[in-house]
Each structure stands twice: as C-alpha cells, then as structure tokens.
Amino acid sequence: MSIVEFRNVTKTFGPVTVLRDVDLSIQRGEVVVLIGPSGSGKSTLLRCINALETIDGGDLVVDGISVREKRTRIRHLRQEAGMVFQQFNLFPQLTALENVAFGPRHVRGTHRAEALVQAEVLLAKVGLGERGHHYPAELSGGQQQRVAIARALAVKPKLMLFDEPTSALDPELRQEVLRVMQSLAEEGMTMIVVTHEIGFARKVGTRLIFMEGGKITVDGDPAALLDNPENPRLREFLHHVH
Amino acid sequence: MDFDWSVVVDALPALLGGAKLTVLIAAAGLVGGTLVGTVAGFARAFGNRLLNALALVYVELIRGTPIVVQVMFIYFALPMLAHIRITPLSAAIATIVINAGAYIAEIVRGALLSVNKGLKEAGLALGLPTWKVLVFVIGPIALRRMIPPLGNQFIISLKDTSLFIVIGVGELTREGQEIMASNFRAVEIWTAVAILYLIMTSALTLALRFTEKRMRIL
C-alpha cells in the first residue's frame, strides 16, 4: 500500500488553480524530489500532504488517513508526516534541545526528562551534540535547519516532507543540511523534497517529479531524466537551474 | 514666597492615605483590565466573526469616549438604569477595568498577530492541536512583546485614577484638593502630590525594566 496517495487532487487560491487533478502515489522508502518553476504548485502539493493547506477537490490519503477526515485524525496524520520548512521556524524562546523535545512532550506526552535525553541523541545524530543549550538566534542557518530536522524526527514520523530546506542558506551551509538528509535517506526514511538541488536529486533521489502549471508533467528515474531530459520544458528548466 | 515644609508634613498622613487608595484602584483595575483585555485581544486575533465583532465594538466604544464620561456613566447613570447601588470606589475600579481592558485588548491582539505565521505552522505540523500552539508557542513569544506597551498602559491607568476626583473617591488627587481647599497652600500640596505620583510610576517603571531584563524579548 502506498504511504501517500493523491487522487484527482485540486487546490485553488481564490481564482487561481494551483493544483489541477493531481494523481500521485508514493511508496514507503522512496525519496521523491519535486522540482519545477516557481508557482508550479510544488510547495502547495507538499503542504497538502500534512494538511497545512486544505484540498478543494479529489482525495489525498496519507498512511491510511484522508486529509478530509476530522481534526483529531488530521493531528494523527501530521505526527506521521514530519515537516521541514525553508525558514526553519524554530521556536525562538526555546533552546535547540527544548525545540527537539517539544514535539514528544506536547504531542506524544513523553516526560520532560526522557524527552530531553531523546533530544540529545537526535541532536548528536544531526551533528549538533554540543549545541543543545544554544538558542536558535545563536546558531547558523545550517545549524538551525539541522535542529529543525531533528525536531521533526523526534515525533518519530513515517515520512519526512522538506519544503526547499536549503533555499535560505548560503552555499557553504547547504552541504551540512544535505548530508543529514542523505544519511536519513540511507536509513530508509520515506522523503518528499521540494528543492532546486539537482545534485541531491541525482545522488539521493529515487524518483524525480517535474511540475508545471499545477500538474505533474514528468515523473521518473532521476539519473535518466537529468542526463537525457526529453521533455522540452524540463530541459529548459534544468538549463536555468545549472 | 517661602516653601513651608511643615505644611507637607502635616498633610502627609492624609496624602499617603490617598496614595494607598490610588494604588488599590490601579492595582485592582489593572488586574481586571488585563484579564478583560486578554480575552478581548484573543477574540480580536483568533475569534470567529461574532466574537471578533463583539470585541471590536467594545474597544471602539471605550477608546472613542473620555474616561471621565465613562466613570460618570458608571457612577451616576448606571444605578438609574439598572437600579443598583454602587460605591465610588467600586465605580472607580470598574472604570479602570473597562477602560484599560480596551487598550490592553489592542496590545494583546497586536502582539499575537506579530508572531511569525511559520511558528504556528511548525507547531501544527508536529501534530499539536491549535490551543496548544497558542499556549506553548505563540503565547510565550507574544507575552514578551507585550511587556513594553503594557507597561505604558499601566502607567497611564495609574495616572488616570486622578480623574476620579469627579466622583469624590478619596484617592491622592482628591485628598490634595481637599487639603488645599482648607489651607490654600497650593505650591506645597501639589508639589507633594506630584512627587507621590512620580514615586508610584517610578516603582512601576523599575519593576517593568526588571521584568524585561529577565525575559529576552524575541
């Protein structure tokens, strides 16, 4: 059974149709890289998966739960789909450690001391074992994004959604974030990544999706598509990104 | 003319009694005003259409009328309308509650809405219910941002209690007025009254500065 299933999904913002009859099925263990020009609907598609955006037509089922179900079920769905944002969105009043422990404490009801111990393990995993007691404002962008990844992982999701995780970072800080994402993929985490990092798509992605005008127009193996883009719009897009 | 210190010394017990009442009215009024303002501010920021409209009418009604008119209405008009008896002191406290509440509602609303929308999304994305996001994510950040404008409002309300001279509640200004009316020592009495207000507002300012230092404003 697929972990994410779009069936004829439509999404509009006022008069603008952002997603047009999208059908998409994603299996466990896939690392799907979503690319496309700005305004093509890739971030919206991602945000529909954990119901940060509501869909207007069709159905979208994530780990057996439809985004159209009632609120308590949606919260359950969100716990299974961790989200990493372009702007990190760490809680500024909490230390890195407290940020990571936040989800388990308030969502899973884990005891504070236990949540902090787990948070330390996760921070070490993203290479920030020494930084736990720093506040977000005291960390670099790359470090903040790695804390944000640890925060999402702390709730033990079944899949991870990344919304342009490196777009707000300087080039030299991107690699540290991409390395963490790569090791996560190597552990078998199901991932859906909106990004412009073509190198990451080739090296880590198991599937590449190109979106345009609210539709998926190309869907296939990253290496094959990047080496030989038959779709003229994809070819043009790659030309601009490189 | 000579500044006669003995006038101040003689007047001091009565003035301190008035100052005590001023503190009581301000403190009780601001505790209530903060509660009312917080509820109205949340209604303005996150309430449904009805709650939002109710809060908006309240804020506009109070901000649009002078506090002296408000206390006159509560002390003289309300008892006639509702057939209740109301003491000057409770009218004074009620006026501060209602008046400060309206301004505090706008402070609370502004602070809540100033918190980056991404933080709310981050909380929701973890699977938290909305109320938990408000209490644990947005609330603590907004609270820190509220402190400077809240301090401003507290000082304004403290000084506004002097207007309750119009309903005869024996707060500091009223006490000063009464002593002055019997001994005509305007310079000594109003200097003493002004200094007592300054002492009260300075204490409030210091307390706020201390709170601000302890909490990092984010």
TrEMBL record, chain A:
Keywords assigned: ATP-binding, Nucleotide-binding, Transport
InterPro entries named among the record's database cross-references: AAA+_ATPase, ABC_ATPase_HisP-typ, ABC_transporter-like_ATP-bd, ABC_transporter-like_CS, MetN_ABC_transporter-like, P-loop_NTPase
PROSITE patterns for the chain: ABC_TRANSPORTER_1 (PS00211), ABC_TRANSPORTER_2 (PS50893)
Domain ABC transporter: 4-238
Pfam family of the protein (one): ABC_tran
Gene Ontology MF: a single term: ATP hydrolysis activity
Family under the similarity heading: Belongs to the ABC transporter superfamily.
Protein's recorded name: Glutamine ABC transporter ATP-binding protein GlnQ
Organism: Acetobacter garciniae
TrEMBL record, chain B:
Membrane-topology annotation of the record: Multi-pass membrane protein
Membrane-spanning intervals of the chain: 20-43, 55-77, 89-112, 124-143, 189-208
ABC transmembrane type-1 domain sequence ranges: 19-208
One Pfam family hit: BPD_transp_1
MF term (GO), any: transmembrane transporter activity
InterPro entries from the UniProt entry: AA_ABC_transptr_permease_3TM (IPR010065), ArtM/GltK/GlnP/TcyL/YhdX-like (IPR043429), MetI-like (IPR000515), MetI-like_sf (IPR035906)
UniProt-annotated location(s): Cell inner membrane; Cell membrane
Record GO biological process: amino acid transport
Keywords, alphabetical: Amino-acid transport, Cell membrane, Membrane, Transmembrane, Transmembrane helix, Transport
One term under GO cellular component: ATP-binding cassette (ABC) transporter complex
Family label: Belongs to the binding-protein-dependent transport system permease family. HisMQ subfamily.
Function, in words: Part of the binding-protein-dependent transport system for glutamine; probably responsible for the translocation of the substrate across the membrane.
Name of the protein described by the UniProt record: Glutamine ABC transporter permease GlnP
Native species: Acetobacter garciniae
Encoding gene per record: glnP
